[in-house]
Specification:
mainly alpha, flat
Length: 153
């Protein structure tokens, strides 16, 4: 235990531990945030659009309808991607057909989201519609920064 009594060794050990602590805190605080859950996004949109009670009820109903329809499309895409991975050693024609179907479904999701924002805008006043358009553009047309956003699977 003589090494603990040595001031130089103790100082070096404390500096190393402090640097490790600072590094860990930086990783935790500066790391990419997890993606918001759909219910959090809906609450944030309700708050940002300043919806009244009747608009909020309509908004929530439309959100639930949208997510149920979109979930079905996303499940289909996931199944087709799994099938594509399973057929990795098959003929290219089969893989091309699967890839085209995945692309068609991805396009349907984008169209569904666009239609959803149009549906949401029906019950809003002019200022709220403008704000909704800004939210839509920020959500779907914002340039992505590499290393940020959803973690890769």
């Amino acid at each position: 235990m003589s090494w603990i009594k040595n001031n130089k060794t103790t100082t070096i050990l404390l500096v190393v531990l402090a640097l490790m602590n600072v590094g860990l805190m930086a990783i935790l605080l500066l790391g990419p945030p997890p993606p918001p859950k759909p219910e959090h996004m809906a609450r944030r949109m309700i708050h940002e659009l300043a919806l009244n009670d009747s608009q909020e009820q309509t908004f929530i109903a439309k959100e639930q309808d949208h997510f149920s329809k979109t979930k079905a499309l996303m499940d289909s895409i996931r199944l087709l991607r799994n099938e594509l991975v399973a057929q990795i050693d098959q003929a290219p024609a089969q893989k091309n057909e699967l890839a085209q179907e995945i692309g068609r479904l991805e396009g349907a999701v984008v169209l569904r989201v666009s239609q959803h924002f149009d549906d949401l805008a029906e019950d809003l006043d002019e200022a709220q519609q403008k704000k909704l358009k800004q939210l839509f553009e920020r959500r779907f047309f914002k340039p992505r920064i590499p290393g940020r956003g959803r973690p890769k699977r």
